[in-house]
């Protein structure tokens, strides 16, 4: 779950909160629902996809580790750049499979994977989600980051003010954003 205040347009900066330092990047594919539904099965889930876009699921790891839930560390204001492009399913391989995903921090590749390496696949995710809620047109769902996020590296890599982070998905585009410090 991402709150509306955590999401920002692709051209807005990522804001690192004043009281936390462990800001992490995560390249993710976001699927946008077209026709909604409930009890959608994996076999026909792709018929409910309007399109796909980019997402940098910038997570506050030091806050996220305070609870077993992922939600709090992923919902600080102004940390989820989305877009700038949306591509329709006919512009990508079926299920957006076999696309290259990359995250770069200050020009250095930090994540390099393909969409089969994502935490969740589109058909499975849609089937699972609509077991407990109705998917509606316009819902946007992140498919989970592949390996290479900063907190898992030795030593850990963090985004800091004045960094430039880019996430790119083959056939979808590039979202490049600066990191700013929160001003109280």
Give a short overview.
By secondary structure, the chain is mostly beta strands. It has helices spanning 61-64, 122-129, and strands at residues 7-9, 14-16, 23-24, 27-33, 49-56, 59-60, 80-87, 100-105, 108-114, 140-142, 164-169, 173-181.
Task: Describe this structure as you would to a colleague.
- It is built from two helices and twelve strands.
- A hairpin with a 2-residue loop joins strand 8 (100-105) and strand 9.
- With 184 residues, the chain is mainly beta.
- It has one domain (4-171): Fumarylacetoacetate hydrolase, domain 2 (Alpha-Beta Complex), CATH 3.90.850.
- 35% of the residues are buried.
Instruction: Characterize the overall form.
Output: globular
Say how many strands there are: 12
Q: Report the biggest beta sheet as strand number plus sense, adding barrel if it closes.
A: 5 strands, mixed
Strand order of the largest sheet: 1-7-5-4-10
Structural class by sheet pairing and helices: mainly beta
- N-end to C-end Cα span: 26 Å
Query: CATH homologous superfamily, by name?
Result: Fumarylacetoacetase-like, C-terminal domain
Instruction: Outline the low-pLDDT stretches.
Output: none
* CATH T-level fold name: Fumarylacetoacetate hydrolase, domain 2
Number of domains: 1
Helix content: under 10%
